[in-house]
Amino acid sequence: MHYVSLIIEFLRGRPAVVFWTVALTQAALWTMMPALFYSAPPGEVPLLLAIGHEFVLGSYLGPPLSFWLGEIAFRLAGTFGLYALAQACIVVTYWAVFKLGSRIAGTRHAVLAVLLMVGIAAFTVPSPNFGPAIMAAPLWALALLHYWRAVGESERGYWLLLAIDLGLLLLASYAGLILLALMMVFTLAVPRGRQALLNPEPWIALLLFVIVIFPHLAWLQQARNLVVAGLKDPDAPGRLPPAVWLCVALILTHVGLGLLVAFASGWPRRPREQAPLIDRNPVEPLARLFVYFFALMPAVSAIVIVFASGRLGPLDRIAPLVVLSGLAVVVAAGDRVPLYRERMVSSTWLGLMVAPPALMVAGIALLPWTLAVDLKISQPANTEGRFFADNFQRRTGKPLNFVTGDAELAPLVALASPSRPHVYFNWAPQRSPWASPADVRRGGGLMVWPAGDPPPSLKTQFPAMVPEVPRSFARTVQGILPLIRLGWAVERPQTR
Fold it and tell me: How much is the pTM?
């Protein structure tokens, strides 16, 4: 008798239960793990909050939506709110792919597509690092769902939802221009798309789309030089050319998906080896073309753009580009998908879900003791923020209102300070138009940098600064690492 696992039975009988269990379990893991074990937000989250704190219509890093929502989440629930917001974005992305897959390939195969997405690293390991790419992923997926309903299924009311999706997507990341351009190409290329343009809804949706993005467009007209200069920054990690780095990142992020597909296919299979089948109704040709086109062309377009420009720009995070990878694999697998080696596949899938957060926690605990690795997420942000804010308050009798200095430390200290001061970017003043050296001198502020000589830009802009004795801070897990030593200075408020 062939053994059929409980997971297969649930896939066949309760696919929606499987989907919600998977999506919410992953969200809980990647919310609770950083909330419990990170002493500082990961990646560029401090910088995101420094910009979001000002609620500007845009910045050198792009459109404002992720910055605004990140700031709101942080004000409501601190870093836990940020991590929860990031995982809400992932859950909505999974849900949109699930609904799209259900309409194209059936509910069971849609669940298979979501299960495969757990093997796409872009949706797991970097997901606590909330930013434009994480914000763009659910909007990208929702836009694809509503576009298919409008064009593929001729449900004309969905054009209005599509307009809102695309408008918000462009307010989250300029990478959304790729999806907008591909939708225009697909609409003109297929007969059903050209027929849809004869109706009034697409043109009403165009007006709604312009209304959504108009405030940012008005800001962009005034600040295009700032945005263009930000896009020209050298940003490819390591020594790889940007286009090569993007190709490597796209391949590596699919390694887990590749393992699941290899094990589920049973390769190499023994003769007469049996496997349970997950059936579906045949996928219509237009739906198949739709999935393949929007699964492959975003990545191909991004590679071409990066190769031509020599810069990654907003494509340095690839989550939106790979939204349909799992669904494309499922559609290509055929109408009857055999699942070989169920136990191995189940164990591998569970490992891909649980192992990354478990390894992250183990790394936080062990790396400082073994390899003396200094993890940014182990920076004692709250201790640093409270110390400098309290010191400034005692010296001046006023709450800390400005922080400047090192490009990484200043935003981190600002987000952890009780008064949530503004961050003045002394390293690039044009990128923080909400503050100036005169503002810092007038209202008083803190300057902070790694122990040593102050940054030259600080000495130039604040020639009267007097560095204090460097302050040492211990990490939550100190290990064999040296103490963190920070140089600092206080700019006292001007008195009239």
Answer: 0.94
Q: 307 Cβ partners below 8 Å, 6+ apart? A: 242, 243
In this structure, the answer to whether residues 353 and 390 fall within a common structural domain is: no
Using CA atoms, how far apart are residues 103 and 100, in angstroms rounded to an integer?
5
Residue 206 to residue 198: CA distance in whole angstroms: 14
Q: What is the pLDDT of residues 143-188, one digit of tens each?
A: 999 999 999 999 999 999 999 999 999 999 999 999 999 999 999 9
Residue 472 host element (H or E): strand 471-473
Handedness of CA 130, 135, 141, 144 (dihedral sign): negative
How many domains are there within the chain?
2
The parts of the chain modelled with pLDDT lower than 50 are 1, 234, 236
**Sign of the dihedral through C-alpha 375, 378, 379, 381:** positive
Looking at the domain assignment, is residue 370 inside a domain?
A: no
Are both 352 and 400 inside the same structural domain? Answer: no
Residue 421 belongs to domain spanning: 379-491
Residues 403 and 431 in one domain: yes
Interval 44-95: pLDDT, tens: 999 999 999 999 999 999 999 999 999 999 999 999 999 999 999 999 999 9
- Positive or negative: CA dihedral 391, 393, 396, 399: positive
* Judgement on whether residues 436 and 316 belong to the same structural domain of the protein: no
Are 175 and 261 found together in one domain?
Answer: yes
Q: Pull the structure tokens for residue 148.
A: 């298919």
CA-based torsion, 241, 247, 253, 259: positive or negative:
negative
User: E-assigned strands of 236-371?
Assistant: 277-279, 336-338
Cα–Cα distance list, 391 to 202, 424, 450, 468 (Å): 58, 19, 18, 12
**79 belongs to a structural domain:** yes
313 shares its domain with 444: no
Tell me what pLDDT residue 6 has. 61
Give the helix ranges, DSSP H, for 310-452.
Answer: 325-332, 342-370, 381-396, 409-416, 437-443
Helix axes 285-309 and 176-189, enclosed angle (nearest 10): 140
